[in-house]
Amino acid sequence: MRQQRIRPTGVEHTFAEDRIIVSKTDTRGLMTYVNQLFVEMSGYEEADLVGRPHNLIRHPDMPRAVFRLLWERVGAGEEIFAYVVNLRADGGHYWVLAHVTPTVGPDGTVVGYHSNRRTASRAALDQVRPLYAALVAEEARHASTPEALAASSALLDDLLARRGTTYDELVWSLDAAAAPTEGAAA
Q1: 31: which strand partners?
Q2: Cβ count within 10 A of residue 37
Q3: Cβ-count burial of 15 within 10 angstroms (0-12 exposed, 13-18 middle, 19+ buried)?
């Protein structure tokens, strides 16, 4: 079944900080499990999600370079935390801080991936949005997907090097900066 291209509407959806979106995929990225919050936030029915590629909810404002980094990490058996914007079935979107880990079978081989996602803070998104916009703009300057991916990955590496940080350190610094300090009024 080929999906009709969904046009982003610019309408942002959010969910409560104490709720977690959960999904599981096989090694090809096909969804094998989604929790009720995933269903609610994506705007799809569970039956329309399970068995489909996780990139069904890929928003066009999400840089390919970040997904490349994500797949490199989990493919190597490592975890990653990443800010991700997802596209809903109705064209709306929602931001998450995703924690993606490989699922290992009894023989030690990776058999799939597990992702827990919580809502992303406004303060962190104020920093992430311009970075991601620059990466997507770089991708748009190239005619082919491989060229676009290589260029945005190089730009991401360069931006992080100029900041003297890694993607992981950037994610954690934004998350820490967004957290209320002890004793601060909430």
Answers
A1: 25
A2: 16
A3: middle
Average pLDDT (100-116) is 95
Helix, strand, or coil (residue 117):
strand
Which distant-in-sequence residues (6+ apart) come within 8 Å of 81 by Cβ? 97, 98, 99, 100, 168, 171, 172, 175
What confidence tens digit (pLDDT) does each residue in 22-68 have? 999 999 999 999 999 999 999 999 999 999 999 999 999 999 999 99
- Cα–Cα distance for residue pair 11/8, rounded to 1 Å: 8
Q: What angle do CA 19, 23, 28 make, to 5 degrees?
A: 160
- The residue count of the chain comes to 186
Give residue-wise pLDDT tens across range 150-161. 999 999 999 999
DSSP string for residues in 54-98: GGGGB-TTS-HHHHHHHHHHHHTT--EEEEEEEE-TTS-EEEEEE
Under CATH, domain 21-178 is a member of which superfamily? PAS domain (3.30.450.20)
- The model's pTM: 0.89
CA dist., res. 132 & res. 99, Å (int)? 18
Domain residue spans of the chain:
21-178
Look up residue 113 and give its amino acid.
Y
Where do runs of H (alpha helix) occur along the chain? 36-42, 46-49, 64-75, 122-140, 145-163, 167-178
SS3 103: strand
